[in-house]
Known about the structure:
By secondary structure, the chain is an alpha/beta fold. It has helices at 11-16, 29-40, 78-96, 116-128, 139-145, 165-178, 220-226, 302-309, 312-333, 335-343, 398-413; strands at 4-5, 19-25, 46-49, 66-67, 101-102, 106-110, 135-137, 153-157, 161-163, 182-184, 189-194, 198-202, 205-214, 234-245, 256-259, 271-274, 280-283, 287-288, 354-366, 377-381, 384-389. The protein is built from eleven helices and 21 strands. The strands form four sheets. Strands 1, 2, 3, 10, 11, 12, 13, 20 and 21 form a nine-stranded mixed beta sheet that branches. Strands 14, 16, 17, 18 and 19 form a five-stranded antiparallel beta sheet that branches.
Amino acid sequence: MTATMFTAPSAAQSASTPLFDVAVIGGGVVGLATAMAMVGDHRLSIVVLEAEDKLAAHQTGNNSGVIHSGLYYKPGSLKAKLCVEGRQAMYRFCAEHGIAHDKCGKIVVATDESERPALDELQRRGEANGLADLRRLSIEELREHEPHVAGIAGMVVRETGIVNYRQVTEAYAKIVRERGGQVHTGARVFDVAIGDELVLQTTRGDFRCRGLVNCGGLQSDRIARMCGLEPQVKIVPFRGEYYKLSIDAWHLVRNLIYPVPNPAFPFLGVHFTRMIEGGIEAGPNAVLALARHGYSWLDISARDAFETFTFPGFWKMARKYWRNGFEEMYRSLCRRAFLAALQRLIPDVKLEHLKPGGAGVRAQALDRDGKLADDFCIQNAQRMVHVLNAPSPAATASISIGRQIAATAAKTLGLQQSRSR
């Protein structure tokens, strides 16, 4: 997919097709938060184009629904700043718009002495990121919070909560529409014509705009290339698989229970999450997916797999994390191995308690040196802003991220208020 040079539309076409200030590609939580900020803070005319037949179809709709506190992120990073700001904004938004949520808190559990230094580092990071209510827990205090947990020490993080991000995204979309913006599903962008204006050719017809914001998630690097940009990163998909606990095991988990993450591996490890709709999820793992929409081992895309395996950065990453990668694959293919990881936190979980759950695919950005992009990655081009990496806590921080992207886009595109009004 490549950008094409623009051929001016006919007078009839121009008259029948509105010219938007900005088109946002991607109907996930970040795309809709960006659109909401643009129609609100900057009074721009906006159209949101989502390829699937519903909003929040991929990363947003398949995550664990956690409102993150900001505990894990490097102090001073954009991730840390936006997560703390975004968490507070998310709680306010949910309260104002009647979206079910619960600031239930979580505990992080060290299961052996070797994890104490990492737990100390987490506390240091959390406090540096403004989490004033962190408290270390003894074995006895751990059991007071979660009677069935196993561990030698822990930490309670009271700012963490739960929500349904599909509902949040729908609420963002409602606000965009109420403020005059358009939101279209089933509108996959397959070409971009560049000239005095941009013409986005989609499965629902052409859309004209002065500027473009790419919030395409799993397809964001391809959209950037379609627009004539050479992205700084490649999207490599990782699948996270979940089990659900059977109802007779719900009593084992009160709220959220996390392990101390392995500092040498960029994922958090399997954990227990109480869902806002009810029930308990266990997971996710982190398995290389063979398709960008690869929600199971049977989902294979020759194109996606070829792009991953021919990218030099992938093999540099694989050399570094191959042991972790094989462990994750084994845990994916062997339910008993998955159970063993869960039993480190709650020994009373049994094999018969694990019921098949869902899966999500994370759009992990990777550079040519094999480095996993950890912070948000936003790349500007003429009349375009491309969000090429928006990992967790992107959903938590979506309001803050949306405002920042909208401000960047308004400045980059030279659009401070709608010219079409």
